[in-house]
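Page 37, top half.
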Amino acid sequence: MLRDKSLSNRIWNWLIDAVFIFFLAILIIPILFMFSASLLTPAEIYSMPYPWISDKPHFANYYNAVTDYGRDLTFLRIIMNSVIVAVGTMILSVIVSAFAGYGLSKFRFKGQKVAFLVLMSRMMIPFEAIMIPMYIIAVKLNFQNTYVGLILPFVMNSFGIFQMKQYLESFPDEMLDAGRLDGLSEWGLFWKMVFKNSTPAIATAAILSFRGQWDNLLWPLLLAQKETMKTIPSYLVKFTEEKFADEGAMMAVAVIASVPIIILFLTLSKYFFGGSTMYSSSKE
């Protein structure tokens, strides 16, 4: 009986592993295809069977992607635009979310629940529903083709505020009281104790905010008409507008666009996977 039970457990574990491997393959294969296709010619990309590794890597795809087929180096400016917009939004969004989450979780004031419900209701409204009113306001404020116009609408992140509030609910009030007794102001409590001990939530909010703006297509496509103010997603659209789309160069742009996300994730992954950590005061 024990042997039969042990065998059944092993079979069950193998089945679970097989299911996980199957779904992992579904997630990884498109990424591998992107890297592989970036070094193939369009003819090779569509050939069957698909040549995952080319005998002669077509590095010209990266040259065409970066130089717009030898015409100029606008793509380098576009990369800079994406970095400025994504990093700027990430930093401001994390700070605002941390402030708001701290206030909603640790202070009691009249209308607190209403304010929180209003913030959360924003999560239920799709961006497409408010995109045109936002665009009209941006035009009235002369925010077209500016970094302010690309960043400002996404600084207030309802999900980030909700995430920080839920995380800081478990922050020990005793530590805050001890800090007040030691003479720390509310600003000091926030920066030296709360913010420094919220790295898992901050890292998660930072990754999600950066990815959201790095992949944002609709708003930059609508607001940035100048070629020098476009971002990487809107640059990718150019390849689909060509009479004969160059899939190899398109995949090369996609690979270049993926690198910052991968670097950010690997840099913050120890906090991202760390979950809730033991709180410790840091008042120095």
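Page 37, bottom half:
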Amino acid sequence: MDENIKMTSADGVSFSWEIAGAGSRSYAFIIDWHIRLLLVLVWIGLMMLILGIDTFSNTLRDSFIDEDADKFVYLITIPPTIMYFLYHPILEILMRGYTPGKRIAGIKIMNIDGEVPSSSALLIRNIFRLVDSLPFLYTLGLAVTVFTKQSVRIGDLAAGTVLVYETKTDSQSIKIATQLAINQTMSSQDQILLLDLIDRWKILQKDKRVKLGSKFLIKIGENVQQDSVKNMDTTIYDRLCLLAGMK
């Protein structure tokens, strides 16, 4: 099973995102479900206050004899239904691949090229919720995510989308790439090496990253003073960040 989706920008800079599994999907969905339910309940409560309705029993009893029966149907039932079923497609389009639940869970929707999906792709993805939710509680959709290559449900397969984790490193990488694009003191190859080294810094062993960082700085004409590995680790990393425009 693939654990990452990779994208290479026009200037040759590579980015990688980790695929989100069924657990993160479920967590985000549960949060969004509670938000939808809260919105519906708040709407119904407000409309009941506006219409002067005290209880649902009074509503049901009076709706057939009161002249405001149509108002009850339109204001109490139709808007909450629309609110509930259009929650995901509307917010995913407006928030460019997010919902509040996905933001909290730290995941987002991307297409297979690593870009923000189009509105049509997001609509297709949500139309297939009707299939993924069969026979109940998204049983089919969750089952498909377990066995598919990139943990995707049927809606994702139809729309060409995936769910990935959005980490601070992703945002940082984009910022670095922007800074490097206007940095004319290094070749494009050196810029790519610098970006890759900063991205991988924390997952490399300290002595290895100090060695790689030192070689890179020497390669671009920087002076590297020998010191303890601990001190060099901090000094070299700070210098790399400064070259990338992060400091």
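Margin note: The chain has two domains: 4-165, 169-243.
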